[in-house]
Structure formats: structure tokens, C-alpha cells
UniProtKB/TrEMBL annotation:
This is MAGUK p55 scaffold protein 4b. Residues 422-611 form the Guanylate kinase-like domain. Pfam families: Guanylate_kin, L27, PDZ. Coiled coil: none annotated. PROSITE patterns: GUANYLATE_KINASE_1, GUANYLATE_KINASE_2, L27, PDZ, SH3. InterPro entries: GK/Ca_channel_bsu, Guanylate_kin-like_dom, Guanylate_kinase_CS, L27_C, L27_dom, L27_dom_sf, MAGUK, P-loop_NTPase. Residues 237-307 form the SH3 domain. The keyword S-adenosyl-L-methionine does not apply. Keywords: SH3 domain. The keyword Secreted does not apply. Belongs to the MAGUK family.
């Protein structure tokens, strides 16, 4: 018997029979049993190994595969789709058909089944397209290994770019676009040398001329003769999602290798980076994307370099391929705006000067105080909107300019766990647009769920005020210490008193299980975008000037110099101007934009946005989820 086993091992191709292997195995077990009886070393281990059920199963699988290999699969017929059509006609012709026949009829009519049968027939008839040209009879011995590649082109672009070696004039595939036609074929690779296209030798041609040869045939088979690259680099691509912090238009970028293959994006767009092989040009898809095909975007380094070039050479150039987040010219504009504001209100200011304390916008809803609506706090914020020397400071005043250095921000999909603290809801917009009106309405809707953070101030409390309710009343020294220890999200001075909102105040609301709703100065965006607060930022945008005039007829604005006066034409213009500046600097950081046209609609949109922020997955900075030590 042992000889029989050896024969099988030496000649693995010989027939094992249906139960061949298992038979051998049981013979081996018997043999081992015999060895055990003879007290031979290691035999027991071998015995248990051979008895193992997993080995038995594996051998069973092996036998099945052997059986399958012996009988090569062949189609029973190669006209299944024709037969199904005949069947449909026959069933239709039946005078009264059974339920089974009806079911069969409806099954056979399904387009997916018909497509399947048609695919079956194509394979069965070996009716493959395209028919490759015959191999030349005589290939010169010294010719390098060439490959003939036929791609069937539809209206889609080929999905590959080429480059020319300026010394030799040879044409190479520069890159293959992820998910494009060439990529899906798996036949063309970056680095392959293109020798011929549709029979035309391309050596020495300009890349544009080669493209013309390719494009001469917009549809049908394109034949490439290529010398494949010998060593294809191995890429370990990792999934990367980024939020664009700048605008980019490939059509306006003369440096892009192929503008048609470029992906344009705006600040705030989320890009899926599918290939970072090239140091200069990444491949990406703009989300949400229904296309399998990626396109070219500048790499982070390249985009940063472009940003710097634009920054230094063209402070503001709307035609430039890339627009920076902020420009020097715009900063100067901001000063001009403030002067205009003083001019406009000087006369009336005499008679109707603001008096801090007379009406501090105390907001009380039955027995619930709505903290953070103080007029002085808002005025101190407003001043920072309109000057380059902000009276309101943020915990990280330089963070905005830091973000200018990085054109992409890595993001990940995040959904708050129901047991986690709520995300901070931060509202912002140009002065007077209605941020506080919306915030107030939201809190009033459900004060048990929504709450503002209690701000700090150095001013003395008034008779009716309680520390921790309207404000935390603290000394200048304590306030200074808190500033020193970065405990304010934003703070500022108004009429000699300091005001600020601390991280602890927001934390208190969040820890109580409520949703903290805060209005913030744009400068505070970077402070609230933190691992702990995970702010969801809602930008309240003014509608058109006409709609502002129409909707704000009975509304009142509080300016630096007036409390609650009717809106004037110039208020709307200033609002629009301020909105333009906020948008050009900060658009990328807005999770939601609400155009505050009809108040009722805006309230509904706000409520929906707040629910989305808490309960639906959102793109958030990767650093919130994987905090770094820096
Ligand atoms: N959609 C709207 N339609 C009509 N009036 C509105 C609308 N939104 C807000 N208002 C009114 O506009 C005025 C200014 O609104 P609000 O005080 O909320 O502005 P704000 O954005 O908080 O600005 P600031 O903080 O600088 O005062 C208020 O009288 C408010 O009731």
C-alpha cells in the first residue's frame, strides 16, 4: 500500500478517482496507526494531523476542483437569447396561460435577464470584439518586446496623458487617469513608450500631433503599439479625502499637463484623492461623484507654490487660475468701510448716542434667560467686522493666516455617537443679516434643548443681573489671566469694558446635554473648529438687495452708533459688502449656508441644519478624529 501512495505522489497527474485522495488519506491513517503501535517517534502528531477535520475538508475541495478541471465547461446552446424571444412569442400566443407561464413571461422580459442571455450567447459564440489584427509573420530579432493594444473608444476620453522625451523625441505615457478608459483596460501604464497609433509611427511628433492622431478616430478601435515599461513602480495608495480651501480652475492654469483632464473646484468642495504618485499632479474626484473617472488636481505642494506666486505677483487677479483666500487690497477696503460708516452716522450720532446699560438687550423667556444676546457683546464683535485692528480677538488670532498656507485640509466622515456631547452650532454672518434673530428663535423653540453660552465681562453687574445668568462678572485681572491661558473663543473691548465667551461656558452647555448655539465673529472660526467642540458652522447670507428691502421694511438694525433704527439703503449695501468679504475669506469653513430671505423659511432651514449636524455623517477635519500632539 505504501508503494501505491508513493506512486500517487510521484505522479500527481494520474487519476485519483472520485474518492481517490480520501482513500489515500485513510490508508495513511491506517499506516500511521500501525506506526503508533510500533511506538515510532512523532507518529502520534502525524496521526492527529491527518485526522484533522480541516485537512479532510481541504482535500474534499481539492477533489472537487480536480473533477471540475477534467470536464471543461461548455455552453449547452449558443442562442439563449433567441430561444427566450421564441418562448415569449409562444407564451403570448397561448389562449389562456397558467400562473407559472405568466411568471416565466415576466421574468424573460426583464432587461437584466435579456442582457445576461445576450452576454451568454456572446461568450458561447466566442463573438469577441475587437478582432485583433494578425501578428506580423516576421518580427525582427532585435526589436524590443512590443505590445499591440486595442482600445474601443466611445465618447469618453482615453484617460491617459503623454509626454515627449525632448532629447530622443520618443513619446511616453505620462499618466493613466484613475477609472478612465485606459486604466480600466489595464493595458496602458505610465512609462510605456508609444511607438505607433493606428499604424502611424509617433516618434519625433509633438504630443499635440499624437493627440490629433488619437482624436482622428472619436469612436471605435484605437490601436497602440507600445513598448511596455519594464519595471512598473508599485504604489500603495491610501484613501485620502480633503476639503479645498482655495478655488481652482484648470482652464485658467497654463501649467496643467492637460486642461481637459483637470478637475475644477471651489473652496469647501470635498475631493477624494485617488492617486498621489506624481509629486505635482494628483488624481482626484470631486464629491459627490457619479463618475468612476478621476481627474488632475494640483498636489498640495504645487498648489501652495501657486498660491505664493499669486500672492506675491498679483494681489488680486480674478482671472488667475487660483484665487487666494485673502488679499492685501481687500484688507484696505475694510478700513474704507469703517470710515464710510462713521461719516454716514456722525450727524445722527449726536442726538441718539448709544448708552450702554440703558437697554442692554436683556432677553428673557418666561423664567429662562437667553444668555449671549447682550448688545454690548455683539457690538464689540461688530467692531471687529469692520476694522483691521480687531477689538475682538480670538484664541488663535493667527490661525486664519495659517490656513492660507495649506490649500487642502484632510477630512474624514464623522457621525456623532448619540451618547457623545452635541456639536457646537456656530452662526455667523455680516452685521444685521439676522444671526441673532435666528438664534433667538431657535432657542425659544425648545429652550430645553438649545442654549447660548454665558459670556464673561469686566463691567459691574446691574441690579437685576446675576453672575452666571446674564454674564459671569469678573475682574480685569481675572479676565487677563483667562486671555493669557487661551480660555476665550473670542473676546474684545467695548466702551472700556471687556467681554468674551469662554470655552468653559460652551463646555458647560454641552456637558448639560444641550445644544450650544452661539453667534461668532469670523475670526473665531478657527478657535471653535476644535476636536472638543466640533463646531458646525452655519453662515447666514443676505439675500439680494431687492429682497432685503422688501423683507426688512419693519426691521431694525443696531449699528455702532444707534440702537434699533430702521434699515437704510446703505445698510443693505454694507451688509452685501461685508458678506462678500466674509465669503471670500471663510467660505471653505461653512458647513451650511442659509440665505436669510423669508424669516420663517430660514428658521426651518436652521432647524434642519442643526438636526443634520447632530445626527448625520459630515466631513470634518481629520485632526478632530485623530488629534495630533501639536
Ligand atoms: N429674514 C428676516 N426678515 C425680516 N427681518 C429680519 C430677518 N432676519 C432678521 N431680521 C430683523 O433684522 C434685524 C437685525 O437682525 P439681528 O439683530 O438678528 O442681526 P444680527 O445679524 O444679529 O446682527 P448684529 O449682531 O450685528 O446685530 C432685526 O430687527 C431682526 O428682527
Amino acid at each position: 500500500m505504501r508503494q501505491a501512495v508513493e506512486a500517487q505522489v510521484l505522479n500527481p497527474c494520474c487519476e485519483l478517482g472520485e474518492h481517490g485522495l480520501r482513500q489515500i488519506l485513510s490508508d495513511v491513517i491506517q499506516e500511521v496507526q500501525w506506526s503508533v503501535n510500533q511506538d515510532i517517534d512523532g507518529a502520534e502528531i502525524l496521526h492527529s494531523l491527518l485526522n484533522a477535520s480541516w485537512l479532510q475538508s481541504l482535500l474534499k475541495v481539492y477533489e472537487c476542483l480536480q473533477r471540475y478541471l477534467r470536464g471543461s465547461p461548455a455552453p449547452a446552446l449558443d442562442y439563449a437569447s433567441g430561444l427566450s424571444l421564441q418562448l415569449l412569442a409562444d407564451i403570448r400566443a397561448l389562449p389562456g396561460c397558467s400562473e407559472e407561464a405568466k411568471e416565466l413571461y415576466s421574468l424573460l422580459r426583464k432587461p437584466n435577464l435579456q442582457a445576461l442571455l445576450s452576454a451568454h450567447d456572446t461568450v458561447a459564440q466566442k463573438d469577441y470584439e475587437p478582432v485583433l489584427p494578425p501578428m506580423p509573420d516576421k518580427l525582427p530579432d532585435d526589436e524590443e518586446a512590443t505590445r499591440i493594444i486595442c482600445l474601443v473608444k466611445n465618447k469618453q476620453p482615453l484617460g491617459a496623458t503623454i509626454k515627449r522625451n525632448e532629447i530622443t523625441g520618443e513619446i511616453f505615457i505620462a499618466r493613466v487617469i484613475h477609472g478612465g478608459l485606459a486604466d480600466r483596460s489595464g493595458l496602458l501604464h505610465a512609462g510605456d513608450r508609444v511607438v505607433e497609433v493606428n499604424g502611424f509611427p509617433v516618434d519625433g511628433l509633438e504630443p499635440e500631433q499624437v493627440i490629433q492622431v488619437v482624436q482622428a478616430r472619436s469612436q471605435g478601435t484605437i490601436m497602440f503599439k507600445v513598448i511596455p515599461i519594464t519595471e512598473r513602480p508599485v504604489h500603495n495608495q491610501t484613501m485620502l479625502y480633503v476639503r479645498a480651501l482655495v478655488d481652482y480652475s484648470p482652464q485658467q492654469d497654463p501649467a496643467i499637463p492637460c486642461a481637459d483632464a483637470g478637475v475644477s473646484f471651489r473652496k469647501g468642495d470635498v475631493l477624494e484623492i485617488v492617486d498621489q504618485t506624481d509629486a505635482l499632479w494628483w488624481q482626484a474626484k470631486k464629491l459627490p461623484s457619479s463618475s468612476a473617472c478621476a481627474g488632475l488636481v494640483p498636489s498640495s505642494n504645487l498648489l501652495r507654490r501657486k498660491q505664493r506666486e499669486v500672492w506675491w505677483s498679483q494681489p488680486y487677479h480674478p482671472q488667475a487660475g487660483i484665487q487666494t483666500l485673502s488679499t492685501v487690497e481687500e484688507e484696505e477696503d475694510l478700513i474704507a468701510l469703517d470710515e464710510k460708516c462713521v461719516e454716514a452716522d456722525e450727524e445722527a450720532f449726536e442726538s441718539e448716542e448709544l448708552r450702554e446699560g440703558e437697554d442692554d438687550g436683556c432677553s428673557k423667556l418666561e423664567d429662562i434667560y437667553l444668555a449671549g444676546f447682550r448688545r454690548s457683546l455683539r457690538l464689540c464683535r461688530r467692531r471687529s467686522h469692520s476694522t483691521t485692528q480687531p477689538s475682538c480677538h480670538t484664541r488663535c488670532p493667527s490661525s486664519c493666516s495659517n490656513s492660507l498656507g495649506s490649500p487642502y485640509e484632510e477630512v474624514v466622515r464623522y457621525q456623532r455617537h448619540p451618547q457623545d456631547a452635541h456639536r457646537l452650532i456656530a452662526l455667523l454672518g455680516p452685521p444685521g443679516v439676522g444671526v441673532n434673530e435666528l438664534r433667538r428663535r431657535l432657542i425659544e423653540l425648545n429652550p430645553n434643548l438649545f442654549l447660548g453660552a454665558v459670556p464673561h465681562t469686566t463691567r459691574a453687574p446691574k441690579g437685576y443681573e446675576e453672575s452666571g445668568r446674564e454674564y459671569y462678572f469678573i475682574s480685569r485681572e481675572t479676565f487677563g489671566n483667562m486671555v493669557y491661558n487661551n480660555r476665550f473663543l473670542d473676546y474684545g473691548e467695548y466702551r472700556g469694558n471687556l467681554y468674551g465667551t469662554s470655552i468653559e461656558s460652551v463646555r458647560d452647555v454641552l456637558l448639560s446635554g444641550k445644544i450650544c448655539v452661539m453667534d461668532i465673529d469670523p475670526n473665531a472660526i478657527h478657535a471653535v473648529r476644535s476636536h472638543e467642540l466640533k463646531a458646525y458652522i452655519i453662515y447666514v447670507k443676505p439675500p439680494s438687495q431687492d429682497r432685503l428691502k422688501e423683507t426688512r421694511q419693519d426691521s431694525y438694525i443696531t449699528t455702532n452708533y444707534y440702537i434699533n433704527r430702521p434699515f437704510k439703503e446703505e445698510d443693505f449695501q454694507e451688509m452685501e459688502e461685508a458678506a462678500r468679504k466674509i465669503e471670500s475669506h471663510y467660505w471653505a469653513f461653512f458647513d451650511q449656508v442659509i440665505v436669510n430671505d423669508r424669516l420663517q423659511d430660514s428658521c426651518v432651514q436652521l432647524l434642519t441644519a442643526v438636526r443634520k449636524a447632530q445626527d448625520e455623517p459630515q466631513w470634518v477635519p481629520a485632526s478632530w478624529i485623530r488629534p495630533t500632539t501639536t
